[in-house]
């Protein structure tokens, strides 16, 4: 899949933002007054910047309000509802904390649940795609939730909890990569099933339908060299989990938290780039592309 | 509304005969022509006369080579592909705005372009590459089964079929109600063993493909050219004499 920068920025920033807002809603290290102002500014800033970025890849963003209408079937529509209600509830919670010095526990827990529901809805947009076997798994919501909770734990300066989250995220990320590499072949998609010609003999592309490119090839035909991907996985894992865990387990204080978060966020961008770049869409079979790890 | 209808009264669709298609791409061109001049936003071209032309098409013809395991001659199979108007269309349910819908009366999957935000999710959800986001209009384009031809009483009756079917010079494309077992297309699918594309994804496509028939094998032709009968008498002498010159 084409790793569109707007979608990578959206999922990374809004995931981290909603993760942090969830921790604030649960009252973990939630301040009052001016401290609370800067805490919520950071949480809301990332969540909203991510959501705004997501509209950049739309062909007709002026009609975006229509995206609230199909919540019965569409995860994108559910995400729209979840994100707006999470931001509204958390806004009420933030106003009480900043201006009245009060932590409204019930509102906070409700807001935190809505924040996590938003992250689940975002992840389900990808996890529901039966056409992209690597994503079409319960591991995808697991990975998105783990990313959000880890970012929230780091920013809340809950260093012990953050290290636990970082270890959990490292495990989920590793399983995602290992299982993901095999998933396309395991599902049995091939040029034989795509064309239905498999029973006639060995099928290969003789001639593509067009000499130039098209929307399908631009959107789904992104090929990343495996050698490149292997290196990026090492770099991604180091930045996403290993370095932040080392920093937070050996130091404490604002600087350690800030450094750990910046490194973790950089790792999240690498990890998310791979999430899109390594995902293979079944339509590529019609263009003669062999999926990773497939034979025959 | 992006909930799929429980059932549709009819299941209009195409039957494509892979045995007959000659890969001339006439259906591609007639589709582009009709759907640029009529229903919805035009199918745009980018850099049409430049070095890297690209454009939106609703129908494309791939060509495959099939090598039978029994050593028979390799076959070239031309493979037109457009929207299959699936019964369980994943492109419809993912749409956040309700722009994508499947009609209860005839099963045609359409896009209401006035409600499309161009998020591209429906194209992600389609296994067949049947949807292309138009680069100029920013809305999703797909086969309408020429909904503006098949019910159009201003056209002569023989023209009330999809443009691709009307134009196909080899008769490889058939249009009809696949929900009616007695229809000509259903009979054709029955008699020729029509099949679905990527059935493992459970999309239940309406369009069916008819398999190519196995090629004949020429009898009594050896792989090496046989040595001709050796000449005798005068011709043998002539043969030798000519060799020596």
TrEMBL record, chain A:
It holds the Pfam family DmsC. GO terms for biological process: anaerobic electron transport chain. Keywords: Membrane, Transmembrane, Transmembrane helix. The chain crosses the membrane at residues 7-29, 35-59, 80-100, 106-127, 161-177, 232-249, 255-275. Coiled coil: none annotated. GO terms for molecular function: dimethyl sulfoxide reductase activity. GO terms for cellular component: dimethyl sulfoxide reductase complex; plasma membrane. This is Dibenzothiophene desulfurase. It comes from Paracoccus litorisediminis. The lineage of its organism: Bacteria, Pseudomonadati, Pseudomonadota, Alphaproteobacteria, Rhodobacterales.
TrEMBL record, chain B:
Residues 203-225 are annotated as: Disordered. PROSITE patterns: 4FE4S_FER_1, 4FE4S_FER_2. CDD domains: PsrB. Keywords: 4Fe-4S, Iron, Iron-sulfur, Metal-binding. Residues 12-42, 74-105, 107-136 form the 4Fe-4S ferredoxin-type domain. The keyword Metal-binding applies. It holds the Pfam family Fer4_4. InterPro entries: 4Fe4S_Fe-S-bd (IPR017896), 4Fe4S_Fe_S_CS (IPR017900), ET_IronSulfur_Cluster-Binding (IPR050954). It comes from the Bacteria. SUPFAM superfamilies: 4Fe-4S ferredoxins. One of its GO terms (molecular function) is 4 iron, 4 sulfur cluster binding. This is 4Fe-4S dicluster domain-containing protein. It comes from Paracoccus litorisediminis.
């Amino acid at each position: 899949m084409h790793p569109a920068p707007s979608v990578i920025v959206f999922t990374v920033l809004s995931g981290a933002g909603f993760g942090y807002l969830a921790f604030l809603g649960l009252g973990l290290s939630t301040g009052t007054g001016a401290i609370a102002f800067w805490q919520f500014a950071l949480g809301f800033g990332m969540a909203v910047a991510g959501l705004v970025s997501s509209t950049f890849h739309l062909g007709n963003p002026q009609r975006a309000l229509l995206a609230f209408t199909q919540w019965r079937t569409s995860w994108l529509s559910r995400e729209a509802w979840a994100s707006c209600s999470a931001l509204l509830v958390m806004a009420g919670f933030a106003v009480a904390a900043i201006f009245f010095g009060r932590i409204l526990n019930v509102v906070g827990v409700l807001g935190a649940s809505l924040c996590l529901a938003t992250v689940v809805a975002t992840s389900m947009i990808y996890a529901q795609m039966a056409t992209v076997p690597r994503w079409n798994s319960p591991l995808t919501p697991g990975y998105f939730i783990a990313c959000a909770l880890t970012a929230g734990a780091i920013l809340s300066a809950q260093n012990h909890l953050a290290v636990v989250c970082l270890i959990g995220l490292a495990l989920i990320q590793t399983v995602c990569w290992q299982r993901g590499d095999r998933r396309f072949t395991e599902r049995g998609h091939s040029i034989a099933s795509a064309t239905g010609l498999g029973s006639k003999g060995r099928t290969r592309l003789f001639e593509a339908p067009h000499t130039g490119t098209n929307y399908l090839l631009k959107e789904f035909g992104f090929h990343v060299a495996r050698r490149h991907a292997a290196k990026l996985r090492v770099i991604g894992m180091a930045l996403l989990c290993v370095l932040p865990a080392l920093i937070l387990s050996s130091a404490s204080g604002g600087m350690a938290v800030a450094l750990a978060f910046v490194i973790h966020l950089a790792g999240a961008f690498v990890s998310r780039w791979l999430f899109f770049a390594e995902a293979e869409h079944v339509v590529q079979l019609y263009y003669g592309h062999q999926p990773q790890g497939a034979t025959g | 509304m992006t909930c799929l209808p429980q059932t549709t009264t009819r299941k209009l669709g195409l039957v494509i005969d892979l045995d007959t298609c000659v890969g001339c791409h006439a259906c591609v061109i007639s589709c582009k022509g009709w759907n640029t001049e009529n229903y919805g936003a035009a199918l745009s071209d980018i850099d049409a006369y430049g070095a890297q032309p690209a454009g939106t098409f609703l129908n494309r013809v791939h060509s495959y080579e099939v090598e039978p395991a029994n050593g028979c001659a390799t076959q070239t199979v031309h493979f037109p592909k457009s929207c299959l108007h699936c019964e369980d269309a994943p492109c419809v349910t993912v749409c956040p705005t309700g722009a994508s819908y499947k009609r209860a009366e005839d099963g045609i999957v359409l896009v209401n372009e006035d409600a499309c935000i161009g998020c591209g999710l429906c194209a992600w959800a389609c296994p067949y590459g049947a949807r292309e986001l138009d680069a100029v209009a920013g809305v999703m384009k797909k086969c309408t089964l020429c909904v503006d031809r098949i019910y159009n009483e201003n056209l002569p009756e023989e023209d009330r079929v999809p443009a691709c079917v009307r134009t196909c010079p080899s008769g490889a494309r058939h249009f009809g109600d696949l929900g009616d077992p007695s229809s000509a297309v259903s009979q054709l699918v029955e008699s020729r063993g029509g099949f679905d594309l990527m059935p493992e994804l459970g999309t239940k496509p309406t369009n069916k493909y008819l398999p190519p028939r196995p090629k004949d094998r020429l009898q009594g032709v050896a792989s090496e050219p046989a040595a001709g009968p050796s000449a005798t008498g005068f011709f043998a002498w002539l043969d030798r004499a000519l060799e020596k010159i």
